[in-house]
Amino acid sequence: MLKKCPSCGGELEKKREKLICPYCNSTYDVEKSDKKSSTELLDPDLFFVDVDLNRLMEKKCTSEVMRAWKYCMDENETSKDVEEYLRKITQKDDGTAMKDVRGERIENLRGRMDPELESGERVIMLIDTTLFGKGKDFYVITDRAVRFFKKKKSMTVKFDDIIAIKINDSLNLPSFYLNESYETSISSVANSYQTLGAMLALITRLAFEYNEDRSRIRII
Ligand SMILES: [Zn+2]
Q: How far is the CA of 4 from the centre of ligand 1 (A)?
């Protein structure tokens, strides 16, 4: 890894996934190969883990989601990269929709969604949480928030407001509660563990892109 600033020779400091020169303010990307060497499941620069990960990794369902989450964080530098990855893996994952992957489902729900969206807000992914995919209950990941629609109710967790993600592994289908509330939970009966892990990577990548200086996300 680069240690000295190529422009001024100053000692570089690592901040999240960048190297920053405190003397001339140049920033450099951390080489991919350096990041991959990390053995941590979740990057300690981004996450404060307050849960027994070893216990979670003993369970097949949670370990598969966590591995997919880590894989996506390690392999994809930006939320755009995670998005492209999701576009590939969700081709067969019927409970989801993205632009160019069952995108008409997103358009069909515009009437329900649009009053809640800010102007210019982009819907990246839709996850149907009704059993037979009727689109009554669903949530969307946008470029600003995760928005949940249940019957007539809607709830929003903006990226800046994500403080913690609570892992509930009491069932065989793990769920990930944004800010500890089961009403704002990331899970789905129809989606694969791989998709679920990639969605968590998308949400957390977006949260750090939305505000680079935000505090770490607590995993509880
Ligand atoms: Zn410098």
A: 8
12 C-alpha vs ligand 1 centroid, how far in Å?
8
| pLDDT tens figures, 117-173 | 999 999 999 999 886 656 689 999 999 999 999 988 999 999 999 999 999 988 778
Q: Which residue has the tokens 């939305």?
A: 210
CA of 216 to the centre of ligand 1 (A): 26
| CA 212 to ligand 1 centroid distance, Å | 20
Question: 219 C-alpha to center of ligand 1: Å?
Answer: 35
**Which residue reads 């969604």 in tokens?**
113
pLDDT tens-digit readout, 10-63: 888 887 778 889 999 888 887 655 554 456 889 988 999 999 988 889 988 899
Nearest to 90 by CA among 126, 140, 129, 137: 126
Q: How far apart are CA 25 and CA 63, in angstroms?
A: 40
SS (H, E, C) 123-135: EEEEEECCCCCCC
| Residue 27 CA, ligand 1 centroid: distance in Å | 8
**How far, in Å, is the centroid of ligand 1 from the Cα of 78?**
25
- How is 67-101 classified by DSSP, letter by letter? HHHHHHHHH-SSHHHHHHHHHHHTTT-TTEEETTB
Beginning with the edge strand found earlier in the chain, give each strand of the sheet holding 123-128 in spatial order. Answer: 96-98, 123-128, 137-142, 145-150, 153-158
